[in-house]
Design a protein that fits this description.
It is a peripheral membrane protein. With 649 residues, the chain is an alpha/beta fold. A hairpin with a 2-residue loop joins β9 and β10. The longest helix is centred in the C-terminal third of the chain and has 21 residues.
């Protein structure tokens, strides 16, 4: 008898969907099949339909979101038509991009119990405790939700979905607002659920380094269609497709491809995609030791299989484990990192090297001054909770300041103090000579623009155009119409201008919020996680806008987990940890302190990790720089052999 084949966990057949008020379909004849037990990443540019596609899996489309729908969706071979969202949610757990909005109970245990209790399951408490234990939250069961860090809240949203014990788990943008350490923690939980508990895991992700480390398959979407679904290594080597759609391959892949082009060698079908693969690849070319970081992982037997490439092109490769990624930092001497970053090109110093001070240049005036500024609040248990602990800072005109640190360190709270949204509990905050304790938020907002971490918090109108124009018209800005047109064009919002911003994708909402903030040309610009949820093309547009803002904005502060943004943009980096300033200096000085990086939940770029593993000094901050350095080394190694070759006469 023929062998019985297992039905796909999810099957999408010819699905098209158009949101109300839009003439263009978000999904346009999409087809997809996901095998049971797979770990699949869905990638694509902002607005290509990734989140909309995933909302088919649990019936939110078409049962909750109205619109024009056609096609068929099957779960485990059974059509979802006729099944309610409540029934489908037992089979498909969903952690949304704005995960904090799905936390509805006061304590951790209450939240984990919520879903199974609503279904009347008698073992609801046991299910909740199992889910909390899987996510490492059991010790926090009695904590209130608002006492948790962002990473802990994300894990709690995951535990709430797991409490119903679904076979399929969908996580939209798992790491978009998390520091590197919490991001790895979330992905380690997902991998354990996939491998040990057999869950089918689907993630929507922009960070291809995480995809390379954890996923087995990748599905690429373009204009509402599934362009292809491939094993992870093959998918991340589709460089032309990724570049066209604004998706950045892992830095390891970029460096390997650039090196091959520089050397004029034939293009390989598959370049390395993980740090471990790249160390083997480059180490083989250099015919030398791979370096301390990789040696250490092999010596401890710390290897990680790499999805579909386990027995493929690169074999079973020893890699730097995700949980021990910070150990790679120890292989880099402090002065090495400092030299690398100070020599790297920046927007202000495009040729690299230390910036030359101008003679007789006066120190710039302080635009923002914090003097022993503190922020605290009283919890329901009547305890005083301190968020910021006596910060004293002067931020000068013309500085580009990056605020970094782990989730809960106080970055967003500091921005709120500067914007006047929160008043200091102690000390003072002055902005452009205005004391935020006695100046209204309305008055401060004429000089300070705050782009929130959650874009939807900024939306009050029913169309994108009205959102961008709102503040300009309320305050009677001259040439408001021309400014709106410029913002819509700069942030690629012209085709979306008549849509309700609340119905856009996360990346599109981010672009709208940036356009709102940039439109008023403020003296001080505050951006909270501006690159979260952005594809490569929009991220580059943001960086271009930041450079353009320097002509109009006196000072820019960004709270971010994006270390590439920090290394390439910031002139000053302030590290917050537990409400205090843990470090304040240049990017070079911050990245040169391994203990600080570990304690504050930061991370080096993959190019820096590769440099450490290959023993390159100084290390390289970007993949292009790494490839150029390796090319020079290889050229020097080849030169003597050419010189010794007998000449033909």
């Amino acid at each position: 008898m023929p062998e019985k084949t297992e039905s796909p966990a999810i099957e999408i057949i010819g699905v098209s969907f158009t949101y109300p008020g839009s003439e263009q379909p978000v999904l346009n004849g999409a087809n997809l099949s996901v095998a049971p037990g797979s770990f699949t990443a869905i990638i694509g540019g902002n607005g290509c339909g990734k989140s909309t596609l995933c909302k088919l899996f649990n019936g939110l489309i078409p049962h909750y979101y109205s619109g024009d729908f056609e096609g068929e969706v099957k779960l485990g071979g059974v059509p979802s038509q006729g099944q309610s969202v409540a029934e489908l949610s037992r089979k498909v757990g969903y952690v949304y991009q704005d995960f904090e909005n799905q936390l509805v109970r006061p304590t951790v245990l209450d939240e984990a119990c919520f879903a199974p209790l609503n279904y009347g399951l008698p073992d609801y408490r046991e299910r909740a405790l199992r889910a909390l234990d899987l996510c490492g939250l059991a010790p926090l069961a009695s904590r209130f939700i608002w006492e948790l860090s962002g990473g802990q809240k994300h894990l709690l949203a995951l535990a709430g979905a797991l409490a119903l014990e679904p076979d399929i788990l969908v996580v939209d943008e798992p790491v978009s607002q998390l520091d590197p350490r919490h991001a790895r923690q979330v992905y380690e939980v997902l991998r354990r659920l996939n491998r040990i508990h057999g869950k089918t895991v689907i993630v929507i992700e922009h960070h291809t380094e995480f995809i390379a480390d954890y996923c087995r398959d990748v599905c690429l979407m373009e204009q509402g269609r599934v362009l292809w679904k491939l094993p992870v290594t093959e998918a991340l080597n589709r460089l032309d497709d990724l570049a066209r759609l604004g998706i950045q391959p892992p830095e390891a892949t970029q460096a390997a491809a650039r090196l091959a082009a520089l050397r004029g060698t034939a293009a390989q079908p598959l370049y390395p995609v993980t740090t471990g693969e790249a160390l083997r690849h480059f180490g083989g070319l250099l015919e030398g030791p791979i370096g301390e970081a990789d040696d250490r992982s092999r010596a401890t037997g710390d290897t990680r299989d790499i999805g579909s490439t386990e027995a493929g092109t690169f074999g079973a490769i020893g890699t730097i484990d995700a949980a021990d990624a910070a150990d790679a930092i120890d292989a880099i001497d402090a002065t090495v990192v400092r030299d690398a970053i100070s020599a790297a090109p920046t927007a202000r110093n495009p040729v690299g090297g230390p910036a030359e001070p101008k003679p007789d240049q006066r120190p710039p005036a302080a635009v923002i001054r914090l003097s022993q500024a503190a922020l605290n609040y009283r919890t329901l248990r009547k305890a005083e909770h301190t968020v910021l602990r006596g910060l004293t800072l002067d931020i000068a005109e013309g500085e580009r300041v990056a605020l970094v640190g782990n989730n809960g360190a106080g970055k967003s709270s500091l921005l709120r103090l500067i914007a006047g949204i929160a008043r200091p509990s102690g000390g003072s905050v002055d902005v452009l000579g205005l004391d935020t304790r006695s100046t209204s938020v309305e008055e401060l907002s004429k000089h300070v623009a705050f782009v929130f971490q959650n874009p939807e918090d900024m939306f009050i109108e029913d169309s994108v155009r009205k959102e961008v124009a709102y503040c300009l018209k309320k305050r009677g800005y001259p040439d408001a119409g021309a400014t709106v047109e410029t913002m819509l064009r700069s942030f690629r919002l012209e085709e979306l201008q008549d849509r309700d911003a609340r119905l856009l994708s996360g990346g599109q909402q981010r672009r709208v919020s940036l356009a709102i903030g940039a439109a008023v040309r403020p003296a001080v610009m505050l951006l909270d996680e501006p690159t979260a949820n952005l594809d490569l093309a929009t991220r580059e547009e943001l960086l271009g806008t930041l450079r353009e803002l320097e002509r109009h904005v006196r000072t820019v502060l960004i709270a971010t987990h994006d270390m590439q943004l920090v290394a390439g943009w910031a002139t000053r980096v302030i590290v917050l940890h537990e409400g205090r300033v843990a470090a304040d200096g240049t990017a070079a000085e911050v990245f040169a302190d391994p203990e600080l990086i570990r304690r504050a939940g930061l991370a080096l770029t993959q190019s820096m990790e590769l440099s450490a593993g290959l023993g390159l000094r100084p290390p390289c901050a970007a993949p292009q720089e790494l490839a150029d350095r390796l090319h020079r080394i290889l050229a020097e190694k080849e030169a003597p052999s050419h010189g010794a070759r007998p000449q033909l006469v």
